């Protein structure tokens, strides 16, 4: 599915929420206050756009639903929702989308409300306001009741803010006669591009054309053989995926002289005139050189590549696990499957014999490859076993299933399957890290993300 096709598909999906507070305590307080305030102030009389609905749209939807709004790797809001004239024609569709919780696009189970920093969800009171407004004819109300228009910083399309370094892949033509196509593009970080190794605070990959399905990013160290296993990982993008950001004091390292690799998967219709030029990019936001870095970040997967989905089975279970031998801090989780993915669950088995489900996704959506970033980093004691379990639906009841009559093996194509539970993590013990410390300990031993072709 191309980005253009995904955009058209979004016509039934209408709201994307904004950012969450920076700490768990603050988030809990803000969420509780917001729910209470919403419950107390739900209007008893007619609901109007200017007084009641517009503030909800500003807080939860306009990040994406505006001219130049956020692009979730090809998941582009198909309309602006900043004015009454823009919103009114979509009133019934918006009400249906929020009432069914199709929008905002958030897939963690309700019991994890307040756990993740990038949570996108409306309160029941907010949903009630939008639905009542649409059912009552979607009146505008008094213009004097409207809050000031929400201002957005011009970040030139970068969701991480103005980057410190942008690396652009060589211009490449995706041929007419292919529908799915893979290619590697490379850029060496010469001294004029990156004079010295730097600690990374955020990474964002951006497709350079509508035929980019996903990008897996990594880099080779200078002087090493250019094989994937000699590289170090730099994240990825896939439909619905967000940039990689780290809390203060947590960092990856971009090594001067490395060769950055854009491992590209292109997907489009084939035929005369369908070829497209592409020049994808990756942006880096660095820490100041004098910043205190206490944790080096790794990102890889708990996965299983030895399974097969039987034909017609509606709930086939596949599991994998990892034992952490030292205290470990989780920053984010990212379940990854393809079209037959159904549910995903991460469970921590602690050394004292207790267990904790730290994420359950009951309704996995291939078109929203969602990162779940903890508000407060999740600390696991030494000896914790982290289990990742996925259910797959290879039945005719799965509308996304391309062929329920066949057995399905792991593979990189969309019609194959994957079972990967990504984790972004670090050692829990804080250290006063320098670039030289990280180079000595983690390079070249640090491997590319175990982030196979999506």
Can you characterise this structure?
With 454 residues, the chain is an alpha+beta fold. It folds into three domains: 3-145, no CATH class; 165-293, Jelly Rolls (Sandwich), CATH 2.60.120; 298-429, Jelly Rolls (Sandwich), CATH 2.60.120.230. The chain contains seven helices and 22 strands. The protein has helices spanning 3-9, 24-41, 49-60, 84-87, 91-99, 124-135, 435-442; strands at 71-72, 75-76, 165-168, 172-174, 180-188, 198-206, 212-220, 231-237, 244-245, 250-254, 259-267, 276-278, 281-286, 295-296, 298-303, 316-324, 328-336, 341-349, 355-361, 372-380, 384-392, 420-427. The strands form six sheets. Strands 3, 6, 9, 10, 13 and 14 form a six-stranded mixed β-sheet that branches. It is globular. It starts with a helix and ends in a 12-residue tail after the last helix. Mean pLDDT is 87; it is low at 1-40 and 445-454.
Count of the separate structural domains: 3
Name the average pLDDT: 87
Coarse shape: globular
What class do helices, strands and sheet pairing give?
Answer: alpha+beta
Fraction of residues in helix: 10-25%
- Give me the strand/helix succession: HHHEEHHHEEEEEEEEEEEEEEEEEEEEH
pLDDT < 50 runs, ≥5 residues: 1-40, 445-454
Major pleated sheet: 6 strands, mixed
Count the strands?
22
Strand coverage percent: 25-35%
The number of helical elements comes to 7
Distance between the termini: 13 Å
Which oligomeric form is depicted?
single chain
CA-atom Rg in angstroms? 23 Å
């Amino acid at each position: 599915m191309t980005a253009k096709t995904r955009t058209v598909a979004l016509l039934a999906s209408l709201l994307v929420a904004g950012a969450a507070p920076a700490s768990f305590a603050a988030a809990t307080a803000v969420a509780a206050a917001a729910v209470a305030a919403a419950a107390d102030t739900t209007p008893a009389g007619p609901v109007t756009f200017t007084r009641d609905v517009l503030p909800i749209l500003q807080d939860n939807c306009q990040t994406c639903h505006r001219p130049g709004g956020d692009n979730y790797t090809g998941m582009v809001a198909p309309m602006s929702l900043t004015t009454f004239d823009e919103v009114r024609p979509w009133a019934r569709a918006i009400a249906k989308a929020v009432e069914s919780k199709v929008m905002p696009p958030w897939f963690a189970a309700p019991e994890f409300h307040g756990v993740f920093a990038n949570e996108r969800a409306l309160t029941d009171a907010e949903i009630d306001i939008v639905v009542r407004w649409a059912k009552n004819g979607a009146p505008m109300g008094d213009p004097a009741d409207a809050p000031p228009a929400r201002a957005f910083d011009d970040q030139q399309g970068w969701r991480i803010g103005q980057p410190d370094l942008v690396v652009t892949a060589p211009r490449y033509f995706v041929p007419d006669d292919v529908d799915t196509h893979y290619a590697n593009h490379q850029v060496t970080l010469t001294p004029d591009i990156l004079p010295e190794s730097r600690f990374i605070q955020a990474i964002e990959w951006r497709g350079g054309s509508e035929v980019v399905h996903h990008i897996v990013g990594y880099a080779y160290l200078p002087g090493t053989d250019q094989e994937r296993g000699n590289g170090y990982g730099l994240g990825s993008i896939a439909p619905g995926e967000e940039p990689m950001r780290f809390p203060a004091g947590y960092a990856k390292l971009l090594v001067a002289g490395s060769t950055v690799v854009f491992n590209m998967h292109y997907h489009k219709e084939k035929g005369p005139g369908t070829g497209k030029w592409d020049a994808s990019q990756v942006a880096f936001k660095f820490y100041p050189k004098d910043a205190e870095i206490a944790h080096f970040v790794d990102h890889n997967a708990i996965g299983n590549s030895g399974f097969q989905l039987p034909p017609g089975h509606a709930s086939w279970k596949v599991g994998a696990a990892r034992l952490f031998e030292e205290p470990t801090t989780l920053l984010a989780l990212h379940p990854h499957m393809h079209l037959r993915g159904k549910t995903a669950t991460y469970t921590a088995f602690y050394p004292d014999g207790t267990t904790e489900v730290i994420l359950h996704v009951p309704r996995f959506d291939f078109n929203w490859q969602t990162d779940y970033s903890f508000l407060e980093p999740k600390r696991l004691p030494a000896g914790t076993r982290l289990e990742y379990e996925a259910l797959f639906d290879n039945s005719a009841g799965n509308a996304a299933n391309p062929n329920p009559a066949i057995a399905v093996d792991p593979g990189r194509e969309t019609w194959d399957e994957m079972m990967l539970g990504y984790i972004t993590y670090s050692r829990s013990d804080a250290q006063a890290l320098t670039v030289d410390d990280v180079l000595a300990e983690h390079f070249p031993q640090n491997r590319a993300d175990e982030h196979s072709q999506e």
